[in-house]
Amino acid sequence: MSHPPEGLYFFINRETTDDGKSLAINFNGLGTPLTVTEFERLPTQIWRLRDLISIYCGTQFLEFQDTTLPIDIDNDGNLVSCVSPDRKWDVRGSESIYTIQDDAHLGFWGLRKAAVGERIAGSSNQRQYWRLIPVPVPDPPASRCTTM
Per the database record, which ranges form the CCL2-like lectin domain (predicted)? Predict the structure, then answer.
């Protein structure tokens, strides 16, 4: 089992909806439970993985791509975006299929059912597996400066 490299990703659940649609983890706002929506390569579906270089060797931060809002667990057991997390995440797998666990390894995070709007929560079935699709980073614009 290995960790994915740092970068921007879409997290797509391995299971599809009854009508064959792929589901991506979606950012719904600060403090709001994360849900899945139909995968459409939306900005709200882009997540950043950052490695932790500390005593937490092998763990990563999972945060929404446009901010430094890491992910935590609310009192109902749902994943939420927050300002000040105490959680680190263990994202590991092989090839493009991964699991997500909190740093205490108390459970895997997935879906209770493969449906649009479903919250990300503890899972012990096939819906705990995620495909990570790297987000292409565009080339920087060409310089308009000329040399003399």
Answer: 7-127
Q: Which domain holds residue 35?
A: 7-134
Token reading at 65: 């791509």
**pTM tops 0.85, yes or no:** no
Q: Domain for residue 98, yes or no? A: yes
- Give per-residue pLDDT as tens, 49-106: 777 655 445 556 566 565 555 566 666 666 665 544 555 667 778 777 888 876 666 6
Count structural domains, the chain: 1
Question: How does pLDDT run across 76-85, given as a tens digit for each residue?
Answer: 666 665 544 5
In sequence order, which residues have a C-beta less than 8 Å from that of residue 115 and are 6 or more positions away?
Answer: 17, 18, 23, 36
For residue 128, the 8-state DSSP code is G
Separation CA 55–CA 75 (nearest Å): 27
Cα separation of 84 and 86, whole Å?
A: 7
* Encoded amino acid at 97, one letter: I
